[in-house]
From TrEMBL:
Record-linked CDD domains: cinA (cd00885)
Source species: Compostibacillus humi
Family, similarity comment: Belongs to the CinA family.
Gene name of this polypeptide: cinA
SMART domains to which the protein is assigned, alphabetical: MoCF_biosynth
One Pfam family named in its UniProt record: MoCF_biosynth
Residue span(s) of domain MoaB/Mog: 8-174
Lineage: Bacteria, Bacillati, Bacillota, Bacilli, Bacillales
Record protein name field: Putative competence-damage inducible protein
Length: 418
């Protein structure tokens, strides 16, 4: 029976715990290890404290046979990765002459006085495989001890990625024999809640083995992550495709993209496919909707522009909202949303237009409570629709939720157009 390789990734740095930077290193490393068929069962993050780092290392040593550590290899007193591992392993350290020479050369070439603590970065464990750092100061290391492979990498993402790609992955590929391949695919949905999506797929989820199916809520909808494990990439890809077909046969109406594709990118693609242009009329959203669309490369082919009609007179003069609508039902109304959409379409000569009006809060407007939002869509064919919503949250949360709902409405509107 072939040996199973289980990895743990330990990220060292108080800045990670304080939320000052995101732990993107662990995410990236997990993907790379999965491609080698190496299971990652734990991510650990620990601050710059010697005893706490030692305890985390001790736990990882019991749980995994591959431990990858990022960070804590710098020159200052709070860079304690080596010291913590020394307490655990009792291994001696020595100066790696090529790394020290590189560090000293850097300071000489930049006419900077090198302080003694910079020599700390050149320390390595005796008998380790030294991973010379081509773009940074501190080298990485691979240490085999007590049937556990320890890999120490710099915390700077570009340094970590280069050492991993050039040195670590080839080492692990040789060590593990690259038995199984693990790949994931993310399916993205909009307009359906997580609980409803799970209900529609409950039998598939409950009987999952390989591939596995996991619904997850995200900011712009719900995603399903399918993960498959197999002997080669072709086998895994076939399993992913077959599972994807089963899922989309049930909830395909809400599906808009895969993996990194965004709802904005899908909308721009649909508008191009249908040879349509779009304009917006935005009151409470203040241009946020059109900003989301034009963040996509190539949006200029289909996005003509937007009118921010925040003031009532702007709604009247630029968007053509009638005095009768304003006096009878007000600017926070279905009628106003529809007239705003029509006005933007006519003014900017677009194929269709979308409008937003409502109450962001905190106070009510025209007798309507905070969170009341109307979104209208109007096309050249005369087909139009308006929907009323009530969003919870503070002012900017309401605005962001209105934009998200507008993206959803526009997507389903475009899908229905012939």
């Amino acid at each position: 029976m072939s040996k199973q390789f289980n990895a743990e990734i330990v990220s060292v740095g108080t800045e990670l715990l304080l939320g000052q930077i995101a732990n993107t290193n662990a995410q990236w490393l997990s993907k790379k290890l999965a491609e080698l068929g190496i299971n990652v069962y734990h991510h650990s993050v620990v601050g710059d404290n010697l005893e706490r780092v030692r305890r985390v290392f001790a736990a990882a040593n019991e749980r995994a046979n591959i431990v990858i550590v990022t960070g804590g290899l710098g020159p200052t007193e709070d860079d304690l990765t080596r010291e913590a591992f020394q307490l655990l392993s009792k291994k001696e350290m020595e100066i790696h002459a090529p790394s020290l020479e590189k560090i000293e050369k850097y300071f000489r070439n930049n006419y900077i006085t090198m302080t003694p603590n910079n020599k700390r970065q050149a320390r390595v464990f005796k008998g380790s495989i030294v991973l010379e750092n081509p773009i940074g100061m501190a080298p990485g290391m691979i240490v085999e001890t007590n049937q556990v492979t320890w890999i120490f990498l710099p915390g700077v993402p570009r340094e970590m990625k280069q050492l991993t790609t050039e040195k670590v992955l080839p080492y692990l590929e040789k060590k593990t024999g690259k038995k199984d391949v693990i790949q994931s695919q993310v399916l993205k949905f909009i307009g359906i809640g997580e609980s409803t999506l799970e209900h529609e797929l409950i039998d598939l989820i409950q009987t999952q083995t390989n591939p596995t199916i996991a619904p997850l809520a995200q900011n712009d909808g719900v995603v399903i992550r399918i993960t498959a494990k197999g002997e080669n990439k072709e086998h895994v890809r076939h399993m992913l495709d077959e599972t994807r077909k089963k899922i989309l046969s049930r909830v395909g109406d809400y599906y808009y993209g895969t993996d990194e594709e965004t709802i904005e990118e899908r909308l721009i693609s649909l508008l191009k496919e249908k040879e349509l242009t779009i304009a917006s009329a935005e009151s409470l959203t203040g241009g946020l909707f059109m900003s989301r669309l034009i963040s996509v490369s190539g949006a200029s082919e289909v996005c003509l522009g937007g009118i921010i009609g925040y003031d009532t007179n702007v709604k009247r003069k630029l968007l053509g909202v009638s005095d009768e609508t304003i006096s009878s039902v007000g600017t926070v109304s279905e009628a106003c949303a529809l007239e705003m959409a029509r006005g933007a379409k006519e003014k900017l000569q677009s194929s269709l237009a979308i409008s937003f009006t409502g109450v962001a809060g905190p106070a009510e407007v025209e007798g309507k409570p905070a969170g009341t939002v109307y979104i209208g869509i109007c096309s050249a064919s005369g087909k139009s629709e308006v929907a009323e919503f009530s969003f919870q949250g503070e002012r900017n949360t309401v605005r962001e939720r209105a934009v998200k709902k507008g993206l959803e409405m526009l997507y389903h509107y475009l899908k229905k157009l012939e």
